[in-house]
Every structure is written in C-alpha cells, then in structure tokens.
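Could you help me review a protein record that somebody else here produced? This is what I was given.
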Amino acid sequence: MSEGGRAGAAVQITANGTYTLPGFADSALTSLNVTVNNYADLVKMIRSGYSGRLVDVLVMKTQ
C-alpha cells in the first residue's frame, strides 16, 4: 500500500486464506489483514471487466 510515501512490499494473493498487507508509509496503519473466502469468484469478477471498486465487495470488520 502507498499513499504519499514509500510503498510497502507487494503481497500476492493466490488462494483462499488470510493475508497481511504492510501498512502505509508515515501512517498509523501498520498492517491490514485481508481474508479471501472465494478466490475463484474474485478472480472471475476482476477479469470479466468489473469496473467498480473492490471495496464494493469487501466486508470490513474491526477487532
């Protein structure tokens, strides 16, 4: 992730599971955990010309 600073390392998501993305540079966000529950349908949606934002299909939860 990057916003006005140095980007964190890229994370490849290749299957269902939980992934940790490094946080934004110069931000209080140190990391972001993302859980993928249906990888095959996510890839199909993205590759079929989905023109919206991925945030539209995310379920956000705090711990």
User: Anything to note?
Assistant: Residues 39-47 form the longest helix (9 residues). The beta strands are 17-22, 31-36. The CA atoms of residues 21 and 32 lie 5 Å apart. The radius of gyration is 13 Å.
